[in-house]
TrEMBL record:
Pfam families: PK_Tyr_Ser-Thr. ATP binds at residue 119. GO terms for cellular component: plasma membrane. This is non-specific serine/threonine protein kinase. Residues 19-30, 40-50, 377-397 have a biased composition (Polar residues). It comes from Jatropha curcas (Barbados nut). Its EC number is 2.7.11.1.
Amino acid sequence: MKCFPFYIADKKDESRTVKTTSVQSTNSTFTDHEVGRSGSELNSQNVSGTSTESIVRPLFPSVSQRPSNLRVFTVAELKSATRNFSRSVMLGEGGFGCVYRGSIRSADDPTRRLEVAVKQLGKRGMQGHKEWVTEVNVLGVVEHPNLVKLIGYCADDDERGIQRLLIYEFMPNGSVEDHLSARSEMVLSWAMRLRIAQDAARGLTYLHEEMGFQIIFRDFKSSNILLDEQWNAKLSDFGLARLGPAEGSTHVSTAVVGTMGYAAPEYVQTGRLTFKSDVWSYGVFLYELITGRRPLDRNKPRNEQKLLEWVRPYLSDGKKFSQILDPRLQGKYPIKSAQKLATIANRCLVRNPKSRPKMSEVLEMVNRLADASSETGSPQVLSFRSTMSTENSQVNKTKNKRRSIDLRGGESGWFTRMWTPKLIRTC
């Protein structure tokens, strides 16, 4: 799926916000050399998407304020780890920049080498710089089995100027989106899909409810859920995350960013962000697992392009429900389990955000469903081989192409009362 963040911002409000935005947490994450240069840069440039919440407090508890085990790398070390950023080890290319597979020495045992993914910031200006900073600030202070581990970062100089890179644990089985694609040779069994739904819900529950502060992911989607060697699912790419509302506040007012097809309609319409926005996105994701379809697919017939609109007529009729199940499962699923997962998705997709459950409640529902399922298994290899070329596979991995949406724009809604779709313009 080609994913793209979209932005909505009132120009007057945006410029007023930027003038007073604190950069305290931003500078604290860099190396000493970077601090001297970045502070003036951030103060002098107009950064789109700045939350009004950040005027009052830093976006996140910074690395300097909380314990962090992040390693600081040099450009020379990362060149050595990635064969000088060779295209032969490039895993993908997105809006942030290129991601490379690399190998570094373990900090605990120098005789042992670790496989890593190195993400290099492209020349996208200050918005990309902000996302890089946010990644360091978020993953530098949180740790959970269902969040991708950030090993370290680099903010160094070389002949090309300031280099900003992030070094993650390597996730060998790619993203959930990869395996839901028809191009994939691997088919996730129903049991594995339930397990992924559990893992993703655990990750969101941790971010929303299990820390001394709340983090709203804001870009939850199947391409940001990666799979490790044991097929455990972990949330990744926190560049658009935001700190939850302060005590006494109901929401964070911010420019709208996210991915079309996943963003909660009330957030798109108003710019008011709450953790219930992530709950909506999770509901969309559950229908991805059920159907194997993208939330928005312009290659489908017009009446099937929007996933939530397409599935709606099939939900009230038990006989028709099986028609929306991913055909790549080849009927190997308990129909009642699939129907119950759709029911959980519907709870997440209630139009009124106050009526949506918390992620801890969603997790409990998914756990009960997984426990009740008698099916066990792991991803299955189909008997046929993919005929897609390496070049096309690489194109499939390309994501996060940027688009903008008009301030009046909206997403399609749910059930009887739906949000009216508006025109989207591509920049």
